[in-house]
Specification:
It comes from Forsythia ovata. Pfam families: Lectin_legB, Pkinase. One of its GO terms (cellular component) is membrane. Its main location: membrane. By secondary structure, the chain is of the alpha+beta class. The chain has three domains: 228 residues, Jelly Rolls (Sandwich), CATH 2.60.120.200; 89 residues, 2-Layer Sandwich (Phosphorylase Kinase, domain 1), CATH 3.30.200.20; 61 residues, no CATH class. It has six helices and 26 strands. β25 and β26 form a beta hairpin. It is globular, with a radius of gyration of 31 Å.
């Protein structure tokens, strides 16, 4: 019985030592600084371009042509932490110029924006290259506009104004830059500061020809942005023209977030000082005590070999189980086709915050799908965690061997896989937009029914996918599970299965 207790204690000790403490990766503050621009960390869309370290957002086109373009930081930035319910504060500073080759025509301006989408290119004209004119009700963004043309359609008060826009180009509040002696379209280099303090629920915008920040803001808005800031958003600039030759350039930019405090569990060692143990004088041992010690010695002499053998049996059993697990993983690995890369379990666990419930995107017949954010690359993916059943493993192998070989513009791409610690994990391309069922039903209930042109495009996209799966790909795939919840809408209102 005593040996059994020691063995159980030893096994428990082994399990504790082999287990690792969870590495909680919470949202982290960022600090970006671009004294000049390179293509390494930015994405250019539309008519934007890079020349001599300066980003141009619109091109010099002959009247009455129009232009729109945008630039953004490659990686999404954390603005909200679901676990701690903390919303970040942020501060940005940038220098820009708006010049006009033809003074007789001007407009429309530029905007600094935060958006959950990194692919949408907005329309020219009064839309500032920020939003698509055909999807005004679906745009989600926070923007500071530097408008050079009065557009009555968006209730602009005048030319040369700065305004705060949230999900709409009708500004919440505006201020005329001329009142501070700054002509937005004069062609001079202008420096802007935008500060948001979440604690004070206040957004302030400063403007100056100088590199020194003014003491008084041009525009101050009391607003709680925590209702609009998503967990991750892209930051950048957009601009547009409409029948004019206005040029919009960004020369430098810095951006940072504040307020996140990463919490990592720490093991506090319990140290006991030698001086805390009281010294005791030796106690004389009687003959009966000697006989008792001899019996203990004899028992230990017999017990230790038996205990050692038991430990060997335990370690042998653990080794066999581990070997079988490795062999199983190798068998699964040998089934793979080239293409998707192998992820480590630690990497996926960290990216999903330990598969936290707040990261769940949905549930399927064969597992749960989680949103994963990889801090090293700044990318977002969808991780499918298969159920721990034989059927789950079979489905896992089937998806790897078939889906990895499929290549179609309307199919979500498989990016990787992981078979560690008894887990079967698939990593897919992340689709940020709504699923078809939400657009068809929930949006309609809110008074925004899906237009028939979009319905037609979705139907054509779906038919194209089925034709590819059933007839065109090398290994025929019969889907048999087409449903609206499994259809993701692309940024151009296309279809992804």
């Amino acid at each position: 019985m005593y040996t059994r207790k020691l063995l159980v204690s030893l096994i428990g000790l082994i399990l504790i030592n082999l287990s690792h403490y969870p590495d909680y990766v919470l949202s982290e503050n960022v600090n970006l600084d671009f004294p000049f621009f390179t293509l390494r960390n930015i994405t250019l869309l539309g008519d934007s371009y890079l020349r001599n370290g300066i980003v141009g957002l619109t091109r010099e086109l002959g009247v009455p042509s129009s232009s729109s373009g945008s630039v953004m930081y490659n990686y999404p930035v954390a603005f909200f932490d679901q676990e701690t319910n903390v919303t970040a504060s942020f501060s940005t500073k940038f220098s820009f110029s708006i010049a006009n080759v033809n003074p007789s025509s001007f407009g429309d301006g530029l905007a600094f924006f935060l958006s959950p989408n990194n692919q949408t290119l907005g329309s020219p004209g009064g839309y500032l290259g920020l939003v698509n004119s055909s999807q005004l009700s679906k745009n989600k963004f926070i923007a500071i506009e530097f408008d050079t043309r009065q557009d009555l359609h968006f209730n602009d008060p005048d030319e040369d104004h700065v305004g705060l826009d949230i999900d709409s180009l009708v500004s919440i509040k505006t201020a005329n830059s001329i009142l501070r002696g700054v002509n937005l379209k004069g062609g001079n280099l202008i420096t802007a500061w935008i500060d948001y303090e979440n604690g004070k629920k206040k957004l302030e915008i400063f403007l100056s020809y100088s590199s020194f920040k003014p003491e008084v803001p041009l525009l101050s808005v009391g607003i709680d942005l925590s209702d609009y800031l998503k967990e991750f958003m892209y930051v950048g600039f957009s601009a547009s023209t409409e029948g004019s030759t206005e040029l919009h350039c960004i020369e430098n930019w810095s951006f940072r977030t504040m307020g996140f405090r990463p919490i990592r569990p720490k093991i506090q060692p319990h140290n006991v000082s030698d001086s805390s143990v009281p010294l005791r004088t030796p106690i004389p041992v009687s003959d009966s005590g000697n006989r008792h010690h001899k019996m203990i010695g004899l028992g230990l002499g017999i017990g230790f070999p038996a205990f050692f053998c038991a430990v060997l049996v335990v370690f042998g059993w653990i080794s066999v189980k581990k070997w079988k697990g490795i062999k199983s993983e190798r068998i699964i690995t040998s089934e793979l086709v080239t293409g998707p890369r192998q992820f480590s379990y630690k990497e996926l666990k960290s990216a999903t915050r330990g598969f936290h419930s707040s990261r769940i995107l949905g549930h399927g017949a064969f597992g749960t799908v989680y949103k994963a954010f990889f801090t090293d690359s700044g990318t977002i993916s969808a991780v499918k965690r298969s159920k721990h059943t034989h059927e789950g493993k079979t489905e896992f192998l089937a998806e790897l061997s078939i889906i990895a070989s499929l290549r179609h513009k309307n199919l979500v791409q498989l990016q990787g896989w992981c078979v560690e610690k008894g887990e079967l994990l698939l990593v897919y391309e992340f689709m940020p937009n709504s699923s078809l069922d939400k657009v068809l039903y929930h949006e309609s209930e809110n008074g925004n029914p899906l237009k028939w042109t979009y319905r037609y495009n979705i139907a054509v996209g779906l038919a194209s996918v089925l034709s590819y799966l059933h007839q065109e790909c090398e290994q025929q795939v019969i889907h048999r599970d087409i449903k609206t919840t499994g259809c993701r809408l692309g940024v151009d209102s296309g279809y992804w299965a």
